[in-house]
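Q: Please design a sequence for this.
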């Protein structure tokens, strides 16, 4: 069994206000700050930024106003900006895309090569600049992962830059930074956590240790969403912990069909990754259950029966109710119906065989069609 974690982690309400102190502990002399345009105008972020710039008058600031997940071309542009006034550490504050951008910039600052040459799983690269991540949404887990998603505009695919050297040096998680985000973004990000937890739980590569994180992450996130009290920063601490647990589990096991479907739909229709995964999650779980997989019972935090089959059915019913509460859509709003369900299933299957192979029961193009049909 192998299990790895590599990021120093701090979680707490108002913790971001002490970000400058965390940087001082890391002996940072000149931070490069990449922050999300979506939080730039919020009073809490402005207070966080004031604290940093008061302590570091030489801080180099860049506002990420790129809509959606960054491309390799955009990554090159941002890296070039920082090369003009080089920092000794990158601090990324924002959603998952901004955190991924920070990983890419930190790596390109010490590797003067085209960004596209690092796509996939690059080897032989120099160590990046130290990276500190500060998420403004809780769910993607980008704050502790080494994966960084970037889009190849020519191929129209998410390929990313995935190197264990991308691990952030430190993650500072403060739920107050997420309080001004639109509720739909908070929900989509939390659903991303559920996808990570479920995919990693069922993965054929799971371990006993990774499953501990899958279960804890799922139950904390599911409970927080069920309670419908996300207007309280304290309630979002469960989302923060769920995000960390889900991503730690996913890194140490592997993904499955839900994550694969999410990547395909997200690129094709620019659907936020968390929402795209949410669309498919419940039906993939139901498909697995109908084909004999009953271990989802372990995820059920409120199981009222010792029967694995009945506890799994109970969990799926609770998920049906949660989906109605959160108004998670089907595929219909994105132009899919019975007439083109087979086309979607075929294209997704061709692009995502690797993700499909991680499923706990055999998952083929016919399986994909069965899932897609339930959503059209």
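A: Design:
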């Amino acid at each position: 069994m192998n299990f790895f974690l590599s990021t120093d982690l701090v979680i707490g309400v108002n913790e971001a206000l002490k970000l400058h102190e965390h940087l001082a502990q890391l002996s940072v002399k000149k931070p490069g700050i990449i922050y999300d345009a979506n939080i730039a105008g919020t009073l809490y972020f402005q207070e966080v930024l004031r604290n940093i710039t008061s302590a570091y008058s030489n801080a180099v600031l860049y506002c990420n106003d790129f809509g959606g997940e960054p491309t390799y071309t955009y990554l090159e542009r941002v890296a070039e900006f920082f090369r003009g006034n080089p920092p000794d550490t990158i601090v990324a504050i924002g959603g998952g895309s901004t955190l991924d951008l920070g990983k890419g910039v930190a790596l390109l600052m010490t590797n003067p090569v085209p960004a596209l040459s690092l796509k996939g799983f690059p080897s032989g690269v120099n160590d990046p600049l130290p990276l500190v991540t500060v998420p403004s949404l809780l769910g993607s887990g980008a704050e502790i992962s080494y994966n960084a998603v970037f889009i190849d505009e020519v191929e129209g695919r998410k390929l990313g830059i995935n190197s264990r050297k991308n691990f952030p040096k430190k993650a500072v998680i403060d739920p107050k930074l997420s309080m001004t985000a639109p509720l739909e973004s908070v929900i989509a990000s939390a659903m991303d956590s559920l996808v990570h937890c479920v995919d990693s739980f069922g993965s054929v590569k799971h371990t006993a240790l990774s499953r501990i994180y899958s279960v804890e992450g799922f139950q904390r996130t599911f409970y927080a969403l069920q309670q419908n009290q996300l207007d309280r920063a304290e309630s979002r601490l469960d989302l923060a912990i769920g995000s960390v647990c889900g991503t730690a589990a996913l890194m140490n096991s592997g993904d499955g069909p839900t994550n694969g479907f999410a990547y395909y739909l997200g690129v094709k229709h620019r659907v936020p990754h968390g929402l795209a995964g949410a669309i498919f999650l419940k039906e993939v779980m139901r498909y697995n259950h109908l084909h004999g997989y009953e271990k989802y019972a372990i995820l059920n935090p409120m199981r009222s029966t010792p029967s694995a089959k009945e506890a799994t059915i109970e969990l799926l019913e609770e998920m049906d109710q949660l989906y109605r509460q959160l108004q998670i859509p089907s595929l219909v709003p994105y132009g899919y119906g019975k007439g083109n369900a087979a086309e979607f299933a075929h294209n997704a299957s061709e692009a995502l065989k690797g993700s499909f192979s991680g499923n706990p029961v055999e998952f083929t193009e016919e399986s994909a069609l069965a899932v897609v049909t339930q959503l059209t």
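Q: Thanks. Anything notable?
A: The CA atoms of residues 59 and 181 lie 26 Å apart. The longest helix spans residues 183-202.
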